[in-house]
Amino acid sequence: MLQRPDPFSAQCPTRQVLDRIGDKWAVLILIMLDRETLRFNELRRRIESISQKMLSQTLKSLERDGLVRREVFATVPVTVEYSLTELGRTLAATVQALTDWAESHIGAVQEAQRRYDHGETLLL
Question: Global pTM?
Fold first, then answer.
């Protein structure tokens, strides 16, 4: 009988996936590619403040994980497009739910931060 993975264990491979979806750049790339297939420079333009190096590293990690597909076209210069795989689309749906939650509750979070910063007690 297989034992259920324990993400609290340092050896659990589930942590690798949780690390990926906990990375802000990976989340933003997943959201963007869920909308459409994009070239590298278009992703870089649309995701403000991401460096070329970070975008490249994150795309490689997402591709390695089977979440992003990199397609190269033999043009001059070479054209490279990025899109989500079917597996990536399943994760993007979950990420979208988190995004929806963040958008719906940003006011409450900002208010809690304001109260905390002013030393006020949080009322539940």
Answer: 0.84
Whether 17 and 65 have beta carbons less than 8 Å apart is answered as yes
Strand boundaries in 8-112, DSSP class E? 38-39, 68-73, 79-84
Q: Which two tokens stand for residue 58?
A: 């994150």
d(C-alpha 122, C-alpha 59), whole Å: 40
Distance (Å, whole) CA 74 – CA 29: 24
Task: For 62-111, write each residue's pLDDT tens digit.
Answer: 999 999 999 999 999 889 999 999 999 999 999 999 999 999 999 999 99
* CB contact set of 94 (below 8 Å; sequence gap of 6+): 21
- Prior bond to 77 cis, omega within 30? yes
